[in-house]
Please model this.
Amino acid sequence: MKKNQHFIILKSVFFAVVLMGISSCVKSDYDECVNPNGNVRLTLSLSGDIASRSSSLDRYQINSTNIYVFDAVTGEYVTSTVGGAYTPNIVYEVYFDLRKSGQYDFIVWTNLGEVYKTNVSITDMETTHPYVGNVELFMDYSSVIPGTSIPDLLYGTPVDAQGNPASVNIIGNRDNHVEVILIPDVHDINIKVTGMPSTADNFEFSIVDRASSFEFSDNSTITGTEDIKYLRTCTQSGGELNSTIKVLRLEENRSADFVFKNTTTGELLFSGNLIEVIRNAYINGGQPAPDFSMVYTFSIVFNYNTTLGMTVTINGWEYKPETGNLE
Model:
């Protein structure tokens, strides 16, 4: 009988300790219950539509993320933090503190630094607290070197059930989870040339564009005043030419000059507005014009045929210029 009494006493003590712990959380408004790493846990993912086409974030090289927080009511800068590199197949998460309750807008950009910069530095943001409409992201022209690939640029913000950008209600003394949906702001242009006569000549592919910056919150492209030239040179290997050019996001109703030429002989083999060439190929194949915000890779194949001449396909759809010429 005494043994049972001891058990009841110990059991009562255990529950008392538990209740005291719960009570202490209630009394301090749960301050002791907030994750010590920070009360905001932010995770990244691609939108469902994009993920279905590109599997996951794994296809992108994300070396860092810059996370910006703005007051959703006033649009004023509140704080920011930097996250590390993305590891494939592992949930990307960043913890930080945001202890004042309220409605906030979260903006994430990847790989800022050498090539991509903001017109207001973090140091200046901390002192001037700019409005989100006064902040831009731009490409540093001096860092765009022919023959090198630009980093993967992705933009992200929380979205509602309809996929529209949404503010987040943060409770300062609670744990909060913020999911940011990323949208790529780069396109990969894969280029292949087949059926060419064997030659040791040098060839060049180039894309010239003026899309150089983005509005900070709504992701609109701003056209600059200087040309950005993406350049690749190559020689035949295994009877083919193969190259890839990564460019800032292509958009409807914009021009991006695409040129393919033999630099040894000076012969121009193809030129045209890349965006119109892509549209033409899709429409000629009986497809709707591609949504550049949903398709992020375009594979261009030039095929030489001794009877038909050179044909061009984009993602499998044949391009047919209105003039009947490829130039």
Q: What stands out?
A: Helices lie at 2-27, 48-54, 122-128, 274-284. The CA atoms of residues 199 and 236 lie 7 Å apart.
